[in-house]
Design goal:
Number of helices of chain A: 12
Number of strands of chain A: 11
Distance between the termini of chain A: 35 Å
Oligomer: homodimer
Radius of gyration of chain A: 20 Å
Structural class of chain A: alpha/beta
Largest interface: A-B, 54 and 54 residues
Mean pLDDT of chain A: 93
């Protein structure tokens, strides 16, 4: 299998992507990597010779966070994201992986690769660590305006991704809401509750904000506005919290000693709740493999994302998504 | 001034409310308290004689979390919440304070006290602690479906509450959104951004989830679905996080010693980020003083809520809310 890795995307580019690619080659013989980006910048990162399973595809344009995701195909046709996804479209690679501009990946993948049959709206999923195995939350930003049928599609796509690719058996689907009773919420969520409840045997019910991390639901469904806000709020708070503790510890010898003694506990928790450790998630609903990674991704995240791309193909994510959506065809017509 | 305190509301009833009332009497000579609830249950909490500035108003019905807030006036007319708010309506008290069923307080206050002129929808506000003084977030659940004009009203009411009652000078108003650019968000938030930007000189702009706690905005505006979800998610995560640390510390002697040494840091952070420490917030837009407290409120929260009720009257919250809304009358027509 051959994957295109956006070497220019993310906070740690191009070093993190390249290191991630090298780690992946050590773990599996089955993978070749095309590093896409500025050739000189990429070559500079290699100390010795470049392994034969890695090739470099040079592009001339750079996408930054000020670019409009929606306009990137026309504005930056020779960028890592647009060119990289084109390689997948043209059958020259099996999947695309990027920690770059999420909106650009989303738009380019949707327009160039198209949607899986029956999909109305591709969706972004994020992995959330939790005490008892990970959860996914979907959508986290692709669809700030959504309809009940879209939420049903997100639920089907995300739960079968967990089941077929991440091998979580019988994942339970929760609908994020402001109360547990099915009558709670706004119009969108009241209708979505009815629809999910009617269509999905593994629908767990509504999950309130306070139980997002500890309810039994493994898949948390919401519109992209709510999902994006929650996800970013969680990250922001985590940072503030850690910084407060760090600052406190630096303030006296007693605290410094105490901090040293319990450091392993913090490292453990930090590792467990680190969004970045897990790697990316596939863009759901797009007719091709496109993995979106967190902007702060390090080598391990890229490694895991490459392995995820491989697992997505090995486990026929796209075929199964199509089949599972087809089972609810009368709703989506 | 005379305030009705719901003795039956919250996780620590009736003890916490009674202790809070006693603390308030020690701090200010200006306040009398009517404890409303089951007379026996209330009297049982007093060790000595009941101070002359405290009276007890007996009611026969109890509201629990399974009651529908919307139906409570008819279903439980002799409950602490309905009767207590009626005392305010009838001019027998100057304000009502409860840590009980928020939906019931919301409905009873709106229907019995009415709305301040020009108010379309009363709103719930929550105080969020942050590094540089507190912030308020509004709405946190009263309006899961909202329109741009409602968000404008929330912004006006919440910012002037901070300014007139909490004495924060020139609070800045942020609109919660999924991107900083004014073009970001869903239809509701795009329109709200335009409206707030046109009407409010102290509009700061959009605030993303990751910066809710550390942006310069002191007032965070959103619909009740988003606000409620964020607020509860924050609380839920805080609990999980603390429990993970506690569990880690209990696991070895080394960690126990470390934990003991840095305990003051945690207590400090916990205190700073404790939603409960601050006490309640006034229901905004209702034509009377009704303070909603967190369900987990302890004596200090009740004390602060009583003082807040007093400050709200001293600083003419209702008159100013009316005046400030009137300045944007053409939008609300």
């Amino acid at each position: 299998m051959k994957f295109v890795l956006d070497a220019m995307g993310g906070d740690n580019a191009p070093n993190a992507a390249i290191k991630g690619a090298l780690l992946a080659l050590n773990i599996t013989d089955d993978v070749e990597i095309i590093l896409i980006g500025n050739e000189d910048a990429i070559k500079n990162e290699f100390v010795g010779t470049i392994p034969s399973r890695i090739s470099i595809h040079h592009v001339t344009q750079n996408i930054d966070m000020h670019d409009s995701g929606a306009k990137v195909i026309k504005a930056k046709p020779d960028s890592a994201i647009v060119k990289g996804i084109r390689l997948v479209k043209d059958g020259l690679a099996d999947g695309f992986i990027s920690a770059g501009h999420t909106g650009a990946v989303m738009t380019a993948a949707t327009l160039l690769l198209g949607r899986i049959p029956y999909v109305k709206r591709p969706a972004l999923t994020a992995y959330i660590p939790s005490e008892n195995g990970g959860k996914v939350i979907c959508d986290v930003g692709a669809n700030p305006d959504a309809k009940p049928e879209h939420l049903l599609q997100f639920a089907i796509m995300a739960s079968h991704y967990l089941e077929y690719v991440e091998k979580q058996k019988h994942p339970k689907i929760g609908l994020i809401n402001i109360g547990e009773e099915s009558s709670k919420g706004n119009e969108l969520y009241k209708k979505a509750n009815q629809l999910l409840s009617a269509e999905l045997p593994n629908f767990y019910g509504n999950v309130e904000g306070r139980h997002l991390l500890d309810s039994e639901a493994n898949v948390l469904i919401c519109d992209g506005f709510v999902g994006n806000t929650i996800l970013k709020f969680g990250e922001g708070w985590m940072n503030i919290f850690y910084n407060s503790i760090k600052k406190g510890i630096s303030e006296s010898l007693r605290y410094k000693i105490g901090g040293f003694l319990i450091k392993p506990i913090f490292n453990n928790i930090k590792k467990k709740y680190d969004f970045e450790e897990h790697g990316g998630t596939p863009l759901l609903g797009v007719n091709g493999i496109a993995i979106v990674c967190h902007g702060a991704s390090g080598p391990k995240s890229f490694l895991n994302s490459i392995l995820l791309a491989k697992k997505s193909i090995d486990n026929k994510l796209i075929d199964y998504t199509k089949r599972e959506l087809a089972a609810h065809l009368e709703v989506f017509k």
